[in-house]
Amino acid sequence: MWFKNLKVFRLSNWTLSADELAERLEKAAHKPIGASEMQSTGWVQPRDGEGFVHALDGQLLISLRAEQKLLPASVVNQVAKAKAQEIEEQQGYKPGRKQMKEIKEQVTDELLPKAFSSYRDTRAWIDTKNRWLVIDASSSTKSDEVLGMLAKAIDPFPVTPLYVEQSPAAAMTNWLIDDEAPANFSIDQDSELSSTSESRAAVRYVRQSIEIDDVRKHVQAGKQCTRLALTWADRVSFVLTEGLDIKRVTPLDVLRENQDSAAQNEVEQFDSDFTLMTGELARLIASLVEALGGEKATDTPAATVTSESIGDPDDEPYQLAVNVVLENKVASISAIQRHLAIGYNQAARHLERMERDGIVSAMEPNGHREILWANAPA
């Protein structure tokens, strides 16, 4: 039940009931992947037979399934190479680039119906009381999938990244230098310090505490803490990153001992686990935000951006988004959001325009986009 990784977003407002949300998600329910399809993405029931939203005391649980055919490029290339040799013998010369592309497309179409498929489910938790959207995802690619599907179901989509007053990297570095964590937290043994220069040289300490003198030497050399293992209230351990991602979330023994052992069946146990998880994580997030100086207000409420308002972006905001992608070498909606403090839909349309302009590639089946440096503006 417990989420292992937390991507935390702020809901500017939330007016949908659980039934209304479930009705919208059902319209984009996951469908089994077709014989000629490479991938299929849609919503599934968090618990079989209980609808598309599991709701309990203002806490909503939803789940997105991404199914993909397993067709390695190496297999396509091998079969295409064999076909190309046959064609060469028939026509007397090697197939050109355009013909090879057509051969590969034909091979892909022939192999797709025979390919196996695999799927993964990404869960998201909506805290309607504290206005959090939390996605159990280890990467921006997976969280962007959930955000994108939610944006299609909810318009306007009232979500922005979580912004705090103090940079997580600066705060974690200070905690190490002072050898003192903020109230209700303790520092564990895993940490990483990375250079702020282009080299991004990094020093990692695994299951080993870092000495204060070593911290100061690394900081003087231009490094700052980018990952730090922490424990909150002796109840939950986790790793905090410079991007405010919460990874490797683990409930400690005190929580396992307090789990409701009186549950009569699987449904009651599921509800008990869900209540425990959401209650503890909501308090953890609040404590962490406070430790980082509190939440930082932004000037761009996500609710002001609707599907009707999406048009060609102004040149200056668009160029800023391009700079974010090129400088960070990540073609991610969430990265653009976080750097520019804008809503999801606005960041998404910037990335779509970059695709049209040849700056980034179309989204691949695994969710990634390639940065096309050759076509990027100077």
Automatic annotation (TrEMBL):
A molecular function (GO) term: double-stranded DNA binding
CC per GO annotation: bacterial nucleoid; cytoplasm
UniProt keywords, alphabetically: Cytoplasm, DNA recombination
Pfam families hit by this protein: FtsK_gamma, RdgC
Keyword Cytoplasm among record annotations: yes
One GO term of the biological process aspect: DNA recombination
Localization in the cell: Cytoplasm, Nucleoid
Domain FtsK gamma: 311-376
Source domain of life: Bacteria
NCBIfam families referenced in this protein's UniProt entry, alphabetically: PRK00321.1-4, PRK00321.1-5
Family: Belongs to the RdgC family.
Function: May be involved in recombination.
Name under which the protein is recorded: Recombination-associated protein RdgC
